[in-house]
């Protein structure tokens, strides 16, 4: 990436290197592609108030946070919601996941109502301290904010937890250099 570049390109998708959320400037901590077998499913970018190189540091970072996902293939939105719920459950302590259930249900309802996410469509999940988590589909806020702070932390653990959706994507979201993909 050239010095002074304003965007980072991942899988043909441009991520702004900085965004404004809740009146604060967030930096792109990292971005990468989610693979399922050999298929590219989506790109994801993690925005924080400051760079973080470990899952613990990313989760502990204060202020607003955003995860932004752009679809690289069509996917059933209800199925994606179920996968996210499973990812949250697999990566969160039981008590924390229990507190995030109302938000998890709300996000599942948002995806179920959408029915399908097409190639090129996007969604973001933004956390604002003292305001909660908002879900945006194609740049528009959908529904009310999710008040439980455990929800956003649980959501981040889908990608940053001990059983991430994609280990290579976890490393990229944490700003680490990509490792060569080994195809079987």
Automatic annotation (TrEMBL):
Gene3D superfamilies per UniProt: 3.50.70.10
InterPro entries linked: Chalcone_isomerase (IPR016087), Chalcone_isomerase_3-sand (IPR016088), Chalcone_isomerase_sf (IPR036298)
Keywords assigned by UniProt, alphabetized: Isomerase
Alphabetized Pfam families for the sequence: Chalcone_3
One Gene Ontology MF term: isomerase activity
Every Chalcone isomerase domain range: 8-175
Name of the protein this chain belongs to: Chalcone isomerase family protein
Organism: Pseudaquabacterium terrae
Lineage: Bacteria, Pseudomonadati, Pseudomonadota, Betaproteobacteria, Burkholderiales
